[in-house]
Design a protein that fits this description.
This protein is mainly alpha-helical. 70% of the residues lie in helices and 0% in strands. The protein contains eleven helices and no strands. The mean pLDDT is 89.
């Protein structure tokens, strides 16, 4: 393990921790502009986290140790997920120990903890949100795996760094399977990050909320960690999409200078992706919760069709 590999791994983790709230603020700002509303400040998520970390935590009376430790575990899962996604460099010491399947497992582990914590205090909203979250996860995770398998069939590996290295250095070509996988990944990302049309991060209405229902009882530093983890999840999904479908600009040379040059390239891609996400949310209407299985079922079928196209064309 070289010192440059350790440096690139630490830089990827620090970049995720620092840029994740900025990405959330950028998406919220673009969404407000497109809806002709007064936009919040770009740094508003940082101010919110600062305010929450400086407040006194108030816990539910019958909360168990699981309820108290869940925010730390969820935040750790999301930080580790960001650390194994090749955002700036493919020279990551953690990449041999964690592939695409392990990445989906981290998302699933965080989902289990937040659902158990939501049901722990016995409130109606917490149980409602936990059931809906597990429904979304039950349908979204297989679709995400099919998307990753589409790329792994082309690159002959489930390692994310190998996928990026192989796709970035291939001749420029249009892969029908990756086009289908991209559509499926977009649908899954909207559902997994509680965005319109599956969920609305700005509402607390009983009939519509999923993620917000699970964290209503949290406050202060625990709520700050959950909000930060939600931003990290959005950052991780954005970087997964960029790594699979726009892998150019990721450093593969053992040079710190190349790593630093990859950082502005990443920020430009995330800025464009944030505008696209805000545009999709603005053009979409919130669907009923009973339509979510159809939405995610479509994503799964599109990803499976991408796999079949891969097999039929013999790409790899």
């Amino acid at each position: 393990m070289s010192w440059i590999g350790v440096f690139s791994q630490l830089l990827a983790l620090v970049t995720a921790l620092l840029l994740a709230p900025l990405l959330t603020g950028w998406v919220n700002q673009c969404r407000a502009w497109l809806q002709n509303k007064s936009a919040p400040g770009l740094l508003q998520p940082y101010r919110t986290l600062h305010k929450l970390f400086n407040k006194e935590s108030v816990m539910a009376e019958h909360a168990s140790p699981l309820y108290r430790t869940a925010p730390y575990l969820i935040f750790s899962c999301m930080a580790l997920a960001c650390a194994i996604v090749p955002t700036l460099s493919t020279d990551l010491p953690l990449s041999p120990a964690a592939d695409a399947i392990a990445l989906v497992g981290l998302f699933a582990l965080a989902r289990v903890f937040i659902s158990l914590a939501a049901m722990d205090v016995g409130t109606a909203f917490g149980s409602l949100g936990a059931r809906r979250e597990m429904l979304v996860g039950f349908l979204a995770e297989p679709a995400l795996l099919m998307v990753l398998f589409c790329a792994s069939m082309i690159t002959r590996s489930t390692s994310l760094t190998t996928m990026v290295e192989t796709l970035a250095h291939r001749e420029l070509a249009i892969y029908p399977s990756l086009l289908l996988a991209g559509v499926a990944f977009t649908l899954v990302s909207l559902a997994e990050n509680a965005r319109v049309p599956v969920d609305n991060p700005d509402t607390h209405l009983e009939l519509t909320m999923i993620h917000e229902a699970m964290i209503l009882e949290y406050s202060a530093r625990h709520l700050a960690l959950l909000e930060w983890a939600a931003s990290l999840k959005l950052f991780a999904y954005s970087c997964i999409g960029l790594a699979l479908f726009f892998p150019w600009g990721v450093a593969d040379a053992n040079s710190p200078m190349v790593l630093l040059l990859a950082l502005p390239f990443l920020m430009v891609k995330l800025a464009v992706g944030g505008v696209v996400l805000a545009l999709i949310e603005t053009l979409s209407a919130k669907m009923r919760i009973f339509r979510v299985p159809e939405f995610l079922g479509t994503a799964f079928l599109v990803a499976v069709i991408g796999l079949l196209v891969n097999v039929l064309l013999g790409v790899g």
